[in-house]
Amino acid sequence: MIPEFAINLGGATSIDVTKPGIDKAYGMHKLEEMLKIDIAEMLFIGYALFEGGNDHPAKTTGADCIQVRNPEDTKIIIQTIINCQK
């Protein structure tokens, strides 16, 4: 009914309605461009990295990806990264 938009599952509880091609890979490439950080230097943490999942586009960029089960997993990974930087 709205062909000028892409409609995808945004996770377990939401639906993403965006312009075609606007996804997490697009966002990562924008960060690469704006912050001058190579994709190879990025780390993506997400739940749905599997094909068809809303995080899968990030995996296709070639960035390192870590799949998590829940927000607590994400918190632990980020805290570990911070602690390693000290």
Q: Give the amount of beta strand, in percent.
A: 15-25%
Q: Please tell me the overall pLDDT.
A: 91
**Rg over C-alpha atoms, rounded to the nearest angstrom:** 14 Å
Annotation field: number of helices: 3
Give helix and strand order, one letter per element, not per position.
EEHEHEH
Structural class: alpha+beta
Unreliably modeled segments: none
Q: Reading side by side through the largest sheet, how are the strands ordered? A: 1-2
Biggest beta sheet summary: 2 strands, antiparallel
Proportion of residues in helical segments? 25-40%
Ends distance: 52 Å
Q: What does the overall shape look like?
A: globular
Number of strands: 4
Q: Would you write up a description of this structure?
A:
It contains three helices and four strands; from the N terminus they run E-E-H-E-H-E-H. The longest helix has 15 residues, at 71-85. It has a two-stranded antiparallel sheet with strand order 1-2. The chain has a two-stranded parallel ribbon with strand order 3-4. The protein is globular. It has helices at 24-35, 56-59, 71-85, and strands at 6-9, 15-18, 43-46, 64-67. With 86 residues, the protein is an alpha+beta fold.
Q: Secondary-structure blueprint of this entry?
A:
Layout lengths: L5 E4 L5 E4 L5 H12 L7 E4 L9 H4 L4 E4 L3 H15 L1
Parallel strand pairs: 3-4
Antiparallel strand pairs: 1-2
